[in-house]
């Protein structure tokens, strides 16, 4: 999953609703560019990313007792920065310029119905993020296609028995657990949020099966707000290989905190999609393709000649 093709132009201390919000005017320059995905093409329908080519607001809320989950760090004048990170980042942008990784075609921003009401679109973004954990993008997209073919809303999920729901989402990773989490989450969304998804990281991570990475991506994709860096296993692995963390980190959440301490905020929304695709195509988990990597002379973890 990713946040790509977006510009962060505004910084605000209060959360601003994104284009997916019904209170935000749609149309004009705020209108998202249509996306074409294999699944949408198969249905003869269009999909789009709610925030692609749109303005993203960076939310920096005061951290409250118990925390909001949204960063209040100020890395504009960092005390430490990784050596060569700007050149490494520029090289990754160059290697990713083709936008031809699985995440570029099948990420969460490509998995919701264009024609659905905004709150249903946001629900579908969240559900695709929940399905995507420990699952290849192709498998997630297939599961979303099957769910959407039946009409994917909070009510439709709650009216579907667990066995049928499991059949629809199989073979996503941990599908049995995800059936349980999706049902529980949809019940909460119906009871507390009128069938919509909540608009804060703190509320999102309180939902069953929703972790920080999903919450930050949901904030960006569904609400148009960059609340933090979305760190999955690709971002976690690559950040450590490039020594983008001051010391070795042991979990994606630890990596997120380490990155947010120095990476300029203007890059937070870009980094997930950039590194996920790079991790899918070049900096593979096993046997990374260092010979073809533009960073091979700058990377402490480069292998081979
Ligand atoms: S040189 Fe190898 S390990 Fe380093 S970023 Fe490139 S692919 Fe990854």
Automatic annotation (TrEMBL):
Family, similarity comment: Belongs to the Nth/MutY family.
Protein's recorded name: Endonuclease III-like protein 1
Native species: Erinaceus europaeus
Complexes and interactors: Interacts with YBX1. Interacts with ERCC5/XPG; the interaction stimulates NTHL1 activity and NTHL1 binding to its DNA substrate.
Pfam assignment, any one: HhH-GPD
Ranges of compositional bias, category Basic and acidic residues: 18-29
SUPFAM superfamilies: DNA-glycosylase (SSF48150)
UniProtKB keywords: 4Fe-4S, DNA damage, DNA repair, Glycosidase, Hydrolase, Iron, Iron-sulfur, Lyase, Metal-binding, Mitochondrion, Nucleus, Transit peptide
Domain HhH-GPD as annotated: residue spans: 131-281
Function: Bifunctional DNA N-glycosylase with associated apurinic/apyrimidinic (AP) lyase function that catalyzes the first step in base excision repair (BER), the primary repair pathway for the repair of oxidative DNA damage. The DNA N-glycosylase activity releases the damaged DNA base from DNA by cleaving the N-glycosidic bond, leaving an AP site. The AP lyase activity cleaves the phosphodiester bond 3' to the AP site by a beta-elimination. Primarily recognizes and repairs oxidative base damage of pyrimidines.
TM regions (residue ranges): none
Catalytic activity: 2'-deoxyribonucleotide-(2'-deoxyribose 5'-phosphate)-2'-deoxyribonucleotide-DNA = a 3'-end 2'-deoxyribonucleotide-(2,3-dehydro-2,3-deoxyribose 5'-phosphate)-DNA + a 5'-end 5'-phospho-2'-deoxyribonucleoside-DNA + H(+)
SMART domains from the UniProt entry: ENDO3c (SM00478)
Coiled-coil region list: none
PANTHER family attached to this UniProt entry: ENDONUCLEASE III-LIKE PROTEIN 1 (PTHR43286)
PROSITE patterns assigned: ENDONUCLEASE_III_1, ENDONUCLEASE_III_2
InterPro entries, A to Z: DNA_glycosylase, Endonuclease-III-like_CS2, Endouclease-III_FeS-bd_BS, HhH-GPD_domain, HhH_base_excis_C, HhH_motif, NTH1
Record-linked Gene3D superfamilies: Helix-hairpin-Helix base-excision DNA repair enzymes (C-terminal) (1.10.1670.10), Hypothetical protein, domain 2 (1.10.340.30)
Cofactors required: [4Fe-4S] cluster
EC number: 3.2.2.-, 4.2.99.18
GO cellular component, one term: nucleus
Example GO biological process: nucleotide-excision repair
